[in-house]
Write a structure and sequence with these properties.
33% helix; 16 strands; 395 residues; 16-stranded antiparallel β-sheet
């Protein structure tokens, strides 16, 4: 799938793990390791190891370390095992690559990860053209648990993170992906230092945030059509924030150009101005098809109204009415009368009965990002009409 650093932590991990060595036999080890070193560099990482031991269709790497390309600081990741390695016409397949346990610590904290594995990993042979613009192809990734602690106190825990990839048979098909983190917990009480802020969190019942993440989408390399059909982050007893995005132009060539600009920026930080312009030029190759941002309430809205009302010595309904009155005054100069009325009516419905609030952009036809950026700078008032902006509630 495309290397969107803003998508999903699960997919970024897949790209990292997928770029590790595999061999079909001891006699091919050197060639495969060399090839995989190059693939790792394509992903923006540099990996080294102390020893590579081959036993039949299994390869074990000891004392592995990884670093961002061009950076001196290296992160030790320990021992890696690749099981069930086989050779195909122009690639190698690894049934399972695993990192059973990982741990690192510093004076003020520690991080552990268990049950890290990737299944059905396909690695192109060196000298062959990598499919899908060099992205790593696999069946699934799994991460059993990640725990971060600070000064002996657990501050974050992530459980059962997984991602799946469905590769089409044809060259012009849509590659589909799904993923989820079945559970996470963030200890806000340990992160917040001021007593007043702790009291606010306790009043809301959010000393610890618990929830889960779900995502799904597809990508077609030929025209760069990227559809994030689901990206939902749910916090228990608060609500769900969801994102859907549809764009085109995110082709393998675009990804490669973006990577080269990022490498130039890392190698020459003083040239950020020119490289920033190059990045803007690249973004103009993208076309916007649509997007949706949706909030589904699970008691958060009423908690906020009650809290603000208590601060003002008023009733929650009084605070809601204040918001209803402020919204049209703040938005009229940006959205115009028609859309401002639509937004005001949606906010009123939501505050009267908090269920869901949705912001949707659906242009009649794809809009080049160049036009969107130009409108945002020269005439912000015209932008809502260009992208077909609409707001609704409780639908």
């Amino acid at each position: 799938m495309p290397r969107l650093r803003p998508l999903s932590a699960a997919l970024a991990l897949g790209g990292l793990l997928a770029a590790l060595p595999s061999v079909a036999g001891a006699w091919e080890a050197d060639a495969v390791l060399e090839s995989m070193q190059g693939v790792f560099e394509e992903q923006g990482f540099d990996i080294t190891w102390g020893d590579a031991a081959v036993d039949g269709t299994t390869i074990r790497l000891s004392d592995a370390q990884v670093a961002l390309a061009g950076e001196a600081e290296r992160l030790p990741i320990g021992s890696l095992t690749l099981n069930g390695v086989s050779e195909q016409d122009d690639s190698y397949r690894v049934d399972q690559l695993s990192l059973p346990y990982y741990s690192t610590s510093a004076p003020d904290g520690s991080l552990t990860a268990t049950g890290v594995s990737i299944s059905g990993l396909v690695l192109p042979k060196q000298g062959t053209e990598a499919p899908y613009g060099g992205m790593m192809v696999y069946d699934s990734i799994e991460l059993g648990e990640v725990v971060a602690s600070m000064q002996g106190t657990q501050i974050f825990r992530l459980t059962d993170l997984h991602a799946e990839m469905m590769v089409p048979e044809g060259d012009d098909g849509m590659l589909e992906f799904t993923g989820a983190a079945e559970g996470f917990a963030l200890n806000l009480d340990a992160l917040v230092e001021e007593d007043a802020q702790r009291q606010v969190l306790q009043r809301f019942g959010y000393s610890e945030l618990k929830g889960y993440l779900e995502m799904a989408g597809s990508w077609r390399p030929s025209d760069g059509r990227l559809i994030v059909s689901q990206y939902d982050l749910t916090v228990v007893d608060a609500g769900t924030i969801g994102l859907m995005l549809d764009l085109s132009g995110y082709t393998p060539a675009f990804i490669d150009s973006m990577r080269r600009v990022q490498e130039q920026m890392a190698a020459n930080p003083e040239g950020e101005s020119a490289q920033g312009l190059a990045m803007l030029g690249l973004l103009q190759q993208l076309n916007f098809h649509g997007a949706v941002v949706r909030f589904s309430d699970d008691t958060l809205t009423n908690k906020v109204l009650e809290f603000v009302a208590a601060q003002q010595g008023a009733e929650p309904s009084d605070v809601a009415n204040q918001v209803k009155a402020i919204v049209p005054m703040q938005l009229m100069s940006y959205l115009g009368p028609e859309l401002t009325t639509e937004v005001s009516e949606a906010v009123t419905r939501f505050l009267d009965n908090p269920e869901s609030l949705e912001i949707r952009a659906e242009p009649d036809k794809p809009v080049p990002f160049a036009l969107l950026m130009g409108a945002a700078m020269a005439s912000p008032q015209s932008l809502p009409g260009q992208i077909g902006l609409a707001v609704n509630a409780n639908e």
